[in-house]
Amino acid sequence: MQALTHWPLEARRRITGVLTDIDDTLTTEGAITPEALQALAALKAAGLHVIPITGRPVGWSEPFALVWPVDAIVAENGAVALISSKKGLQPLSDGRKQLSRRYQQDEATRLANYARMQEVAQRVTREVAGAVLAEDSPGRETDIAIDHSEFVQLPPEQITQAVQIMRSEGMNATVSSIHINGWFGAHNKLEGARWIVRELLGRELDQEMEQWVYVGDSTNDQLMFQAFANSVGVANVRRFEAQLSHKPRYITEGERGAGFAEVAAAVLAARAG
């Protein structure tokens, strides 16, 4: 991981879109900082596409998709997107956007998977000492989440056990900075990024990878770190460094929201220069 100051000017000048994790990347102690929010606004004002991609549930994400200056939020590790509905809808009386939900799986598949996931969740909480469902679970539609560092602290061996149970049941499982997420289906953060660029812009992400930067902080960002030449870890990614098979190419000085603001400043400075 090289210091962000080593990110070449020409590479930064090509950036037209920013994809970013939310927890511990945009947020600090669970809330977005004014600095990170201003960075999002500055990127949008400069004409860039800005799309957070998160393991958080769609219900949790909806209030932020309404008020943050972003094109969309892709939630539940790529399964569902909240997109501003611009055609045929009047703004809400308080000035907020209206949103549409789009899913990668059809309704029948989602319902069948949901029932299976609840069974796995019960097994995890029964067999893993101290394991509890994440507090944002009521807003989840396409995955389950076990809290390991948000309100409950699980030791590494329990985290590993929960992941093993999910995978033994045929689920995908990843570990974010706060949760263990499990789901059925082929989607993930990278597939979610490809999907949202197609849905939102009608373009193929793989044909313009050099025009996007991805910003993240933990092990569930590894696919994105691997795929994007312009990949950045905020400084707190170092606590997962030993667990990363694929590391970000660059790393910020600041942690969490302050680190994201560094990335935004680097992109905007290149466009202004």
Summarize the SSE layout with pairings.
Layout: E1 2-3, H1 9-13, E2 17-20, E3 27-28, E4 31-32, H2 34-45, E5 49-52, H3 58-67, E6 72-75, E7 80-84, E8 99-103, H4 107-127, E9 144-147, H5 156-168, E10 172-175, E11 179-183, H6 189-201, E12 212-216, H7 222-227, E13 231-233, E14 250-251, H8 256-272
Parallel strand pairs: 1-14, 2-5, 2-12, 12-13, 13-14
Antiparallel strand pairs: 3-4, 6-7, 7-8, 9-11, 10-11
How are the strands of the largest sheet arranged?
1-14-13-12-2-5
Q: Average pLDDT value?
A: 93
Q: Spans of 5+ residues with little confidence (pLDDT < 50)?
A: 87-92
Number of helices: 8
Output the helix-strand order: EHEEEHEHEEEHEHEEHEHEEH
State the distance separating the first and last CA atoms.
25 Å
**Structural class by SSE content:** alpha/beta
* Fraction of residues in H or I helices: 25-40%
Our estimate of the beta-strand percent is 15-25%
* Total number of beta strands: 14
Query: In this structure, how is the largest beta sheet organized?
Result: 6 strands, parallel
Rg from alpha-carbon coordinates: 18 Å
The coarse overall form would be globular
